Amino acid sequence: MAVKEGNLEAPTRHPIDWKNPDFYNETSLMDELERVYEICHGCRRCVSLCNAFPTLFDLIDESPTYEIDGVNKDDFWKVVDHCYLCDLCYMTKCPYTPPHEWNVDFPHLMLRAKAVKYKKGDMPVRDKILTSTDRVGSLAGIPVVAGIVNAANKAKPTRKLLESVLGVHADARLPEYHSNTLRKRLRQNVGASGEGVPAGPTQGKVALFATCYGNRNEPIIGEDLVAVFEHNGIPVTMAQKEQCCGMPKLELGNLDAVEQAMQANIPELAKLVDEGWDIVAPVPSCALMFKQELPLLFPDNAEVAKVGKAIYDPFEYLFLRNKHGKLKADFKQSLGKVAYHAACHQRVQNIGSKTRDVLSLVPDTTVDVIERCSGHDGTYAVKKEFHETSMKIVRPVVNRVKQAAADHYGSDCPMAGHHIEHGMGDGSQTEHPMSLLRKAYGI
Fold it and tell me: What's this model's pTM, rounded to 2 decimal places?
C-alpha cells in the first residue's frame, strides 16, 4: 500500500507512555530520534519555528553523507536542547502527525528525550533551580528578600556573577518578585462562594488558578482578571491551596515532579468543579498543562480529565459569555491600535484568537495579531547558551510591533510580553491584554 504524502485529517494525540520502562531506553530513543529526524529532513516545513530544526538541518547538511546517517548520534541531543515544547510544529506545520501512519509527534519525542536525559542526571543545577518556581518564589518573596533579589537582578556586577556561576545570561530580563502575592491580595476570594448565571458551556462562576508566575511575579494580571470578571457579574473564588502546574518540570523532563504537582492540584480543582465552578488560568502554559499535557500523561485519571474539560483561557471564557449575550459592553474608552502577540501555548489550545475577538469589541479599537513565537519559553531565554538565539527568534515579532506603531502592545503570556519589551529596547512597556480590557472598562 502506498504511503500517503500528507495528513488531511486533524492531528490527534496519543497518551504518553512514560511509566513504561522502554520509555527510558536510550537505544530505543535514539532509533526513534533517527527515524523522526530523517522524516523532518525530507520535509523541512518547520525551519522557521524555532532553533531546533535549523540545528538539525545544519547537522545533516554538514555531515559527510548529507543525510541523517552521517550525523553523530551524540549530536542528536543538540536538537533536543533547543526544543522548548511550544507545540507549534505539531499543531500548525507537520503533515505527518497521527493519524498519519508515520506517527510523528516531535514535541513529545523531545519530551521523552528530555526525560531520559533527566533520568541520567545529565542536567545542570541551574536548570533545576530555574524550574523550581514554588521553592524559589517562596524564598525570593520574603518581604526583605524580595527587594534585595529584585535589586540584585538589575545590578550588572551581580548579573555577571550569576552568569559565571549559574549560566544565567547577564543581559536576560529576570522577573521581579512580590512579597504581596496575588493570593494575599485576593485572600477574600479564597474559598469564596457565589452564584453564577450559566451561558452556553459556562457556569458563570470561576475558580482562578493563580499560577506560580501570576502569584509571585506579576500579581496585577490576576487582579485585573478578577476586576473584569466581577464587573461582568462572574463570581471568582480561589482554591484553598495550589502549587505550580508542573509545566517547568515537564520542560525539564522531570515527570515524577509533574506527577507530584498533579497530585497536589487536581484534588483541589476537581472539588471546585464538582461544586459547579469553571476554572480559568491567566498564563496560557498553565491552562495548556491542565487541558492537554496532564490528560495525556495520566489518561486513566478521571479527576484529571474532569479538570481538563473545565479549564478555560480567560479570553476564551469571556468570548463564550459574549456569544450568549452575557458580556457587558459598557466600555469607557477606546484602546486605539493594539499590537497583540498570540502566545504559542494559547494558539495550540485550538480555541482561535479569542483575545483579539474580545478586545475588538471595544469601540474604535483595532487589533494587529502577531502569530509568531517570541522565543522566551520561561527559562530558554535566560540561559547563557541560548539567550542570543532567543533574541534572534523574537526579532521578527519586535519588528512587527514597531511597524504597527500601535498605542499598546502585549501578549497573553506575560513572559513573552516582557521578552518583546526587552527586544524593543526603547523604554516602552508591554501591557497584558487583560489589563487593557480593564482599562477599556474604566474599572
Answer: 0.92
